[in-house]
Design a protein that fits this description.
Elements: E1 12-14, E2 21-23, H1 24-29, H2 45-52, E3 59-60, H3 79-90, E4 96-103, E5 106-113, H4 124-140, E6 144-150, H5 158-177, E7 182-191, H6 192-195, E8 204-208, E9 213-214, H7 218-225, H8 236-241, E10 247-249, H9 251-268, H10 305-312, H11 320-326, E11 329-333, E12 346-353, E13 356-363, H12 369-374, H13 382-398, E14 402-408, H14 415-419, H15 422-435, E15 440-449, H16 450-454, E16 461-465, E17 469-471, H17 475-482, H18 489-496, H19 500-505, E18 511-513, H20 524-543, H21 547-559, H22 563-572
Parallel strand pairs: 5-6, 6-7, 7-8, 7-9, 8-10, 13-14, 14-15, 15-16, 15-17, 16-18
Antiparallel strand pairs: 1-2, 3-4, 4-5, 11-12, 12-13
Helix pairs in contact: 4-5, 5-15, 10-18, 13-15, 17-18
This protein binds zinc ion.
Length: about 575
């Protein structure tokens, strides 16, 4: 059921659910819910705010986005043209509206997404604005209410949009630590990177009637599995049945539910006893100078980006278990998520690195078809993410550093994965890493595919093998959405800036690990030596850092992925 919101200025509009022709004003009075069939049409952010907050109480946060095009993305149109069109079409500066308000006379901060603006996609500015909203809630000691509507991360901003999942999640983590309530309201649709971060790692998750939420979209799942999807798949009622949301709320009842939740949180809140958390300096949202590093099409040492993608996927490329055999010693594998499953696509356990005990967690692919199938091609299920989460927390309790090896096309896009809460599993893993009180070094060894990769890559140091790739979406997926044909994957690979040199330039990756010539699969032993040396070089200095400092610096690392820093970096090179 896809009910589209009617355009302004029309007198009549047709219900997307039952096709009844409805008088526009009557529909608006009914909160854009069809009086005939109850279909909930999509609501623009400004209308949504009017429906939720006390009249006249909303004050927009002062921050305003500027032009941001961090990777100089061009598909059929340059990205800035799409931004301009979205602004003209919506009258909004970006895909989220943030501000302070009262709901039932209780103060809170709200961030409301607008699907009309480039599909409500999560880019650097949206991430920055929601983070600022969360920081405002922390400073004011009030709850944060997020109303989500998004197709996922904004691919036109490449891996930087992926980083926003971590940036916002750590702001949510700060509210969690401060005992401040966070509520998300899932509206139709909420998918991808938004679903797998702040839409599901809040304290309470409400789903509006008719909303659909998931990590992978139905089209992708159908394509990958070749199966028909169950009736009502990913709908609010499906989510409730599978334990993914606290309640399903019709639009008319939404404000009342929020009032009740905010009142309960307020009544339960003790007077502040902890010192206020200092606010981070927001990164000013200024456009990067034209002609910066991202505007050049510098290919990595491996040559063309598409060629690098093929190397990163080479079946002979060393896997996590290969590196555990060669770069580490004494690996003792630990299994299971303690909730009913053991995912073969994620391996982990205790090992020694140059004599020091560490916890190693990584995606596991394979070299033969049988191995790849047995390991689900390195695509983790929710159980895999929950196993990783369990091992991270165990490492922190034991005071062991964590080394993650990332090699996945992405998280498992399957029906069961969605039923078992793929989005929430990834979201919790990302959030946990932002607060883990032990050193974390991540190495992208092969494919770093979207949220599934980030779930293991929120680290103090992120390293990347020379011919690995790290991307918000696969080149094929990006081509299918933005180009007329899937054959455009090589062009999409170049546009996405997914190679190690690109990501080092963008500050997402700290160091490039050289591979033997021509690539790791030609000399796995040499590749393992290079990986061990690089991990040691980055891990050793972290071992003496006090945990609180470590966590603070990690948060700063992910807090700084704003546009201004990018401009500074590009200028410095
Ligand atoms: Zn209807």
């Amino acid at each position: 059921m896809t009910a589209t919101a009617p355009r302004e200025g029309q007198l009549w509009s047709r219900c997307g659910g039952c096709a009844t022709l409805l008088y526009r004003k009557r529909l608006r009075r009914n909160l854009d819910v069809c009086p005939e069939c109850g279909a909930h049409a999509r609501v623009a952010a400004p209308e949504r705010l009017l429906q939720i907050v006390d009249p006249g109480s909303f004050t927009a946060l002062p921050e305003r986005p500027a032009e941001v095009d961090p990777i100089g993305f061009v598909d059929l149109l340059p990205y800035p043209h799409r931004l301009t069109a979205a602004r003209a079409g919506t009258g909004l500066p970006e895909a989220v509206v943030c501000g302070t308000a009262a709901v039932g006379r209780q103060p809170c901060v709200l961030a409301v997404m607008d699907f009309r603006f480039l599909g409500g996609s999560l880019g650097c500015v949206v991430g920055e604005l929601i983070t600022l909203a969360a920081e405002r809630a922390l400073a004011d000691e009030v709850p944060l209410v997020l109303v989500t509507a998004s197709g996922g991360a904004r691919m036109q901003e490449g891996a930087l949009s992926l980083m926003q999942m971590a940036t916002v999640s750590q702001a949510i983590a700060a509210l969690r630590e401060a005992g401040l309530l966070t509520v998300s309201v899932l509206t139709d649709p909420t998918y991808g990177g938004v679903a797998a971060s702040f839409a599901t790692n809040t304290d309470v998750v409400l789903a509006e009637s008719g909303a659909r939420m998931g990590f992978a979209g139905p089209r992708v799942i159908r394509q990958v599995t070749g199966r028909d999807l169950p009736e009502g798949f990913q709908t609010a009622d499906f989510l409730l049945r599978h334990g993914q949301v606290d309640m399903v709320v019709p639009r008319h009842a939404l404000r009342g539910r929020l009032v009740a939740l905010l009142a309960a949180a307020r009544a339960g809140r003790r007077p502040a006893s902890r010192p206020g958390v200092p606010r981070q300096e927001p990164s000013p949202l200024v456009a990067r100078p034209a002609g910066g590093a991202a505007a050049t099409t510098a290919p990595g040492p491996g040559g063309d980006a598409w060629e690098t993608v093929r190397l990163a996927r080479h079946p002979g490329r060393p896997t996590t278990l290969d590196y555990l055999e060669t770069a580490f010693d004494g690996f003792v594998e630990l299994h299971g998520d303690r909730l009913g499953a053991d995912c073969p696509a994620v391996v982990g356990g205790l090992a020694r690195l140059d004599g020091r005990p560490v916890m190693v967690i990584g995606h596991q692919k394979g070299h033969t078809t049988a191995e790849l199938v047995g390991r689900n091609f390195g695509m983790a299920s929710p159980a895999g993410h929950r196993k990783a989460l369990r091992l991270m927390r165990l490492a922190a309790r034991l005071g062991l550093p964590v080394v993650t090896l990332v090699d996945t096309p992405g998280a498992d896009p399957g029906v069961r994965a969605e039923e078992q809460g793929q989005a929430a599993a990834i979201a919790e893993s990302i959030l946990a890493l932002t607060v883990l009180p032990t050193p974390v070094v991540a190495v992208i060894t092969g494919e770093g595919g979207s949220g599934g990769a980030l779930a293991l890559a929120v680290a103090d140091r992120v390293l990347m093998l020379q011919h690995a790739v790290y991307s918000v979406i696969s080149p094929e997926g990006c081509a299918a959405i933005l180009w007329p044909d899937r054959g455009a994957a090589p062009q999409a690979a170049r546009a996405l800036r997914l190679t190690a040199p690109d990501l080092c330039r963008l500050g997402i990756v700290d160091d490039l690990v050289p591979e033997p010539t021509p690539a790791a699969h030609h000399d796995p032993q040499a590749a393992a030596r290079a990986l061990r040396e690089a991990v040691l070089a980055h891990l050793l200095p972290l071992l003496d850092v006090p945990p609180a400092t470590l966590v603070r610096r990690r948060r700063q690392r992910f807090r700084r992925f704003g546009a201004a820093r990018l401009g500074a970096r590009a200028g410095a090179r």
